[in-house]
């Protein structure tokens, strides 16, 4: 596609529910990143994929967070047993190469946990 | 720990004014510094800077990097209401997994 797309754009979950957020990167982009952006803050790194391999998940805040990119294109970020502190905008970004810093961002998913 | 600090946190100007946004950083192995504009949701790419002293320019926006003093500035001349956004500075670290470290951003409001 022309840009990075994410779905859903908005998600409201009750505390304890599981959610799945989807990211469609720019076609052919090797690298895919997930970021979490709290209100009034800059994006914070969660995890990084190079093709289907998850090379870095050091930013995932707990073991309730899980990400996958099984075929090296679409990625899903799953949050189990959501908590109120998980409320944030989740941004996905992709970049062309493996050491190409220009990342192109999707519109994000705003997650609200009640 | 890598750190990116932006200033001011927010800024209100009138149309036609010129603004300068600041970004200072501390990273272990600097690779590049990027500026993004964030309106509503998706940060949109503005500039990537890797070398000191070379100005990058796009229309009314320009940016420059000082790798000795560890900072960058983003200038916007003849501001317009459409420039109202959050401007994010991010730094790429060679030792990281290519992820970017972001500052908290500068919220620019341009009033008519």
What does this structure look like?
The complex is a heterodimer of chains A (114) and B (112). In chain A, the strands form 2 sheets. In chain A, strands 2, 4, 5, 6, 9, 10 and 11 form a 7-stranded mixed beta sheet that branches. Chain A has 114 residues and is mostly beta strands. Chain A contains no helices and 11 strands. With 112 residues, chain B is an all-beta fold. At the A-B interface, strand 4, strand 5, strand 9 and strand 10 of A face strand 4, strand 5, strand 9 and strand 10 of B.
Strand content of chain A: over 45%
Q: What oligomerization state is this entry in?
A: heterodimer
Helix content of chain B: under 10%
Order of helices and strands of chain B: EEEEEEEEEEE
Shape of chain B: globular
Offer a quick outline of the entry.
The complex is a heterodimer of chains A (114) and B (112). Chain A has no helices and eleven strands.
Describe the secondary-structure layout:
The complex is a heterodimer of chains A (114) and B (112).
Chain A: E1 5-7, E2 10-13, E3 19-24, E4 31-37, E5 44-50, E6 53-56, E7 65-68, E8 75-79, E9 88-95, E10 104-105, E11 109-113
Parallel strand pairs in A: 2-11
Antiparallel strand pairs in A: 1-3, 3-8, 4-5, 4-9, 5-6, 7-8, 9-10, 9-11
Chain B: E1 3-7, E2 10-14, E3 19-26, E4 30-38, E5 43-49, E6 56-58, E7 61-66, E8 71-76, E9 85-93, E10 100-102, E11 106-111
Parallel strand pairs in B: 2-11
Antiparallel strand pairs in B: 1-3, 3-8, 4-5, 4-9, 6-7, 7-8, 9-10, 9-11
């Amino acid at each position: 596609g022309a840009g990075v797309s994410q779905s859903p754009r908005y998600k409201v979950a009750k505390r304890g529910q599981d959610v799945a957020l989807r990211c469609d990167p720019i076609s052919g982009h090797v690298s895919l990143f997930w970021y979490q952006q709290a209100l009034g803050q800059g994006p914070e790194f969660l995890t990084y994929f190079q093709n289907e391999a998850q090379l870095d998940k050091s930013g995932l805040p707990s073991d309730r967070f899980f990400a996958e990119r099984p075929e090296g294109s679409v990625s899903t970020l799953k949050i189990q047993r959501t908590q109120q502190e998980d409320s944030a905008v989740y941004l996905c970004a992709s970049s062309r190469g493996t050491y190409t810093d220009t990342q192109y961002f999707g519109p994000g998913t705003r997650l609200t946990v009640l | 720990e890598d750190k990116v600090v932006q200033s001011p946190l927010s800024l209100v100007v009138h149309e036609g004014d010129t603004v300068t946004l600041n970004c200072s950083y501390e990273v272990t192995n600097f690779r590049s510094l990027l500026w993004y504009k964030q309106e509503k949701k998706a940060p949109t790419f503005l500039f990537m800077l890797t070398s000191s002293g070379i100005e990058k320019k796009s229309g009314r926006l320009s940016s420059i990097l000082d790798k000795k003093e560890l900072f960058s500035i983003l200038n916007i001349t003849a501001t317009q209401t459409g420039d109202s956004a959050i401007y994010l500075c991010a730094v790429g670290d060679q030792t990281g997994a290519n992820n970017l470290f972001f500052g908290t951003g500068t919220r620019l409001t341009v009033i008519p």
